[in-house]
Specification:
Chain A: Belongs to the protein kinase superfamily. BUD32 family. Chain A: InterPro entries: Bud32 (IPR022495), Kinase-like_dom_sf (IPR011009), Prot_kinase_dom (IPR000719), Tyr_kinase_AS (IPR008266). Chain A has helices at about 1-10, 65-85, 115-125, 135-150, 200-215, 225-235, 235-250; strands spanning about 30-35, 40-45, 50-55, 95-100, 105-110, 115, 155, 165-170, 185, 195. In chain A, about 40% of the residues lie in helices and about 15% in strands. Chain A is globular, with a radius of gyration of 20 Å. The relative contact order of chain A is 0.12. The N and C termini of chain A lie far apart (about 45 Å). By secondary structure, chain A is of the alpha+beta class. By secondary structure, chain B is of the alpha+beta class. Chain B is about 45% helix and about 15% strand. Chain B is built from 9 helices and 5 strands, in the order ββαβαααβαβαααα. Chain B has helices at about 30-35, 55-70, 80-85, 95-100, 125-135, 145-155, 155-160, 170, 175-195, and strands spanning about 5, 15-25, 45-50, 110-115, 140-145. In chain B, helix 3 (about 80-85) crosses helix 4. Classes of the chains: A alpha+beta, B alpha+beta. The interface between A and B is medium-sized, with 33 and 26 residues.
Chain lengths: ~260, ~200
């Protein structure tokens, strides 16, 4: 009886990773739970440095040795790609600390909201004049430039959506702000890989295009701005965009199997 | 007060972190010698302060070392050598000691001591005794370890070399020195986090 009462009081309490059971100025908050892991908001070193902790808990259904290996590999691969992006000047979250054996990765807490939220706020219930919204189109171009930069340094995201990009507002908000100002920060590179093939780039763009169409159907008419800015962002972009036409014809998977 | 007690987030409560910064150190050679001789009275992390860009930079290394100690995954003999090695972005231990540790030519020195109850010393030394021991043995001027002081000491050229931050065009293009420094700190944290993995 007492057990059920406790469960009812805290319906979604997961056991915290060990590192978060140590004392801190504020308790960690669970932000989301994905298929593979959980995301907490907590603090790094000092009470005034917020951070995101990505935790991949052990999967009891996997063989322990395999489980450990997969977790380690995924934590390290994400951290390496983030670090590479940062060195090459692409704005992604900073890597603060990691413990691949314990399955966690501490990253910079990026201020702001996912681009999806900013777009939807801007659209509101509007159905007209969207294709002439210059501020929104400018945001689209910043997205295209960020994705282009990422591809140009040899990184494929693997899950590009407007939820996996943050819009970090400028430090000083000016009067008459539209809520669309700021810097695009690409996040969640958990499925990212290194790659310079036009085919992979095209698939990345295709995933974004499809995700955009279903998340913001009314703004689909300005998605071409993303691709235009992408085209201008690096030399090989044109080839990738050409490939995108092929991918649109056949879908994300190259082979018809699986 | 010469020695500051630093509270870090997510550090087990049994660990206590003591931090001091000395300028114009005259006897770095002697301190270096104590480490080489493994003198048990000198269980400190002695760090050449010119290799540090900010408090967060140094404290990141301390945090990593404490975490390794608590998990029993130290790569070096003790938590103090681990702090020095944690500063490095490579897994070469000797190289880390040489780059970040005290050397006879060090004039600005960070001292970190982490205490926790262990089997050999169930009762760790008190803050006062640490403070006194440093006062007696480090010939230099104790100063508060503020970011402002640290910045005046940093040898940015050497730091950029140690962390392989040269040849990054976008970094060199940043005009605002303050922003550039922040970016350097950020890149260093990433390099340290990924050390040897």
């Amino acid at each position: 009886m007492t057990a059920t009462a406790a469960e009812a009081a805290a319906p979604h309490e997961f056991p915290l990773p060990k590192i978060l059971t140590n004392p801190a100025s504020t308790p960690p908050t669970l932000i989301t739970q994905g298929a593979e892991g959980r995301l907490y908001k907590t603090t790094y070193l000092l009470p005034d440095i917020p951070c995101a902790l990505k935790y991949r808990p052990p999967k009891p259904w996997r063989h322990p040795v395999l489980d450990q290996r997969l977790t380690k590999h995924r934590i390290l691969s994400e951290a390496r790609i983030l670090s590479k992006c940062r060195r090459d000047g692409l704005r992604v979250p900073d890597v603060y600390a990691l413990d691949e054996a314990a399955g966690w990765l501490m990253l910079e807490w990026v201020q702001g909201t996912p681009v999806r939220v900013n777009i939807n706020q801007r659209l509101g219930s509007r159905t007209e004049g969207i294709e002439d919204d210059e501020e929104l189109k400018d945001l689209m171009r910043r997205i295209g430039a960020a994705v282009g930069k990422m591809h140009s340094i040899g990184v494929i995201h693997g899950d590009l959506t407007t939820s996996n990009m943050m819009l970090k507002p400028p430090a000083q908000q000016t009067d008459g702000a539209t809520g669309l100002e700021g810097e695009i920060v690409i996040i969640d590179l958990g499925l990212a890989s290194g790659g310079v093939h036009d085919e992979d780039r095209a698939v990345d763009l295709y995933v974004l295009e499809r995700a955009f169409g279903s998340t913001h159907p009314r703004a689909e008419c300005i998605f071409s701005e993303v691709l235009d800015a992408y085209r201008q962002s690096f030399k090989q972009a044109g080839v990738a965009l050409k490939k995108l036409e092929d991918v649109r014809m056949r879908g994300r998977k190259r082979s018809m199997l699986g | 007060m010469a020695v500051e007690i630093v509270q870090l987030e997510h550090v087990p409560s049994s660990y206590q972190i003591h931090l001091a910064l000395f300028r114009n150190v005259k006897n770095a050679g002697f301190l270096h010698q104590q480490l080489l001789a493994r003198n048990a009275d000198f269980e400190y992390a002695f760090i050449d302060a010119s290799t540090i860009v900010s408090r967060v930079h140094l404290l990141s290394a301390v945090f990593k070392a404490v975490n390794s100690s608590a998990n029993g995954t130290l790569r070096t003999p003790n938590i103090h050598s681990e702090i020095v090695v944690s500063l490095s972005s490579s897994s070469n231990i000797a190289d880390a000691y040489r780059r970040f540790g005290v050397s006879p030519s060090t004039s600005d020195l960070f001292v970190v001591k982490v205490t926790f109850p262990s089997d050999t010393t169930p009762e760790p030394p008190s803050a006062d005794s640490i403070s006194q021991h440093l006062k007696d043995n480090v010939e230099g001027d104790a100063v508060p370890a503020t970011d402002q002081t640290i910045q005046a000491i940093t040898d940015v050229r050497t730091v950029r070399k140690s962390y392989k931050l040269n040849g990054l065009a976008w970094l060199d293009a940043i005009k605002d020195e303050l922003v550039k420094r922040q970016e350097i700190e950020r890149l260093i944290l990433g390099g340290m986090a990924l050390r040897g993995v």
